[in-house]
Amino acid sequence: MQEPQLPLAGVRVLSLAEQLPGPICGLLLSELGADVTLLERPDGGDPQRQVGPANFRFGARAKKSVALDLKDPGSRRAAQLLAARTHVLLEGFRPGVAARLGLGYEEVWASNPGVVYCSISGYGQDGPLSQASGHNLNYEAMSGLLTPFVTGLADQYFLEAPPWGDILSGVFAALGVVAAVRRAESSGVGTHLDLSIVDSLVFALGPAITRHHAGAEAFPRREGAYGVFRCADGYVTLGINHEDHMWRALCRELALADYSELDHDERRSRRAEIRERIQDVLATRTVEHWVGRLAQSAACSRVNTLDDLCTDPQLRTRNVFTEAIAPDGEPFTTVRSPLAAEDSTPAAVPQLGEHTAEVLAALGLPDGVVDGILRHSAAVAGGGTVAAAPGGRP
């Protein structure tokens, strides 16, 4: 039986987006079958290649890399030709920068009216902060996600948590691109998607904001049996918040009969006392013991370390992990997206500019023009090597 075609097979994506949100969007599109090409600066490429090489490897696998100096007229013209034949263009500059490089939405739309043009920025394309600089922490502060730090609930939030704004905006961008591609296929009309990291984070706070405006607690205190607890050889979580039947089951297993009839409000008001009692009992036995006893009845889970993940039976069954190939040819372990089709062929992370000659040749540019662009890119890169083009050009 022939394997079904991936849903975005044949869709060409040109990505000028660096750091993390754009690469995550491109990764999701690639795993759905799109052909994704990174347009990178010759002098180092995406900054994540140097400051966060593992981050770069995570987001860049199965993509092509073209290195062009967009300040050079010939290279900029080549980039514009690439934009004219792409189905999707991703960019992550501050508003206005892409236009100054001749690759803004209006410029690309003029030669490619069906393009789906997706801009991902910290604060969006308009508004008083549209030109402000920032990183994930700034966007979290702006969105209200750091409210626990100013309301005395800082223990409910981890400052070193994953960059949720970058991740969420990348996922929302991919969803928006898929919807816009579908519409463009039927109408021939493209669109400009304006994705803000702050907007994405505010959406994630939707339930809390709705509770706040309804006069309820935006960040309600959890019960005493909701949190992380130490065992004899590691840690587990308990996830009981308002389920009386789970609470009574926990009390039976931990011999806490004097607490079993407490209701939700009492379990919240006596949180510290309850946590201490639970902790005293759980510390006497191993993680395996308690997960075996409580997983089904009382929402108990092992707290995995990163070293534990690859051997976790649940994650192995779900084929969460995959092998990929680093630019130096060495294999490394990374994570599949939940949408990715299972594929035994390891995806490769491109070297900077690895596909420049190949992609430019496919544009039909004269050999002399391609040679000039390659030489200029090599000079900007400080004399580094440039991938050879078909026919043996250096």
TrEMBL record:
Pfam families the record matches: CoA_transf_3
What residue ranges are annotated as transmembrane? none
**What InterPro entries has UniProt attached to this entry?**
CoA-transferase_III, CoA-Trfase_fam_III, CoA-Trfase_III_dom3_sf, CoA-Trfase_III_dom_1_sf
SUPFAM superfamilies in UniProt: CoA-transferase family III (CaiB/BaiF)
Print the keywords alphabetically.
Transferase
Q: Name one GO molecular function term.
A: transferase activity
Q: What is this protein's name? A: CoA transferase
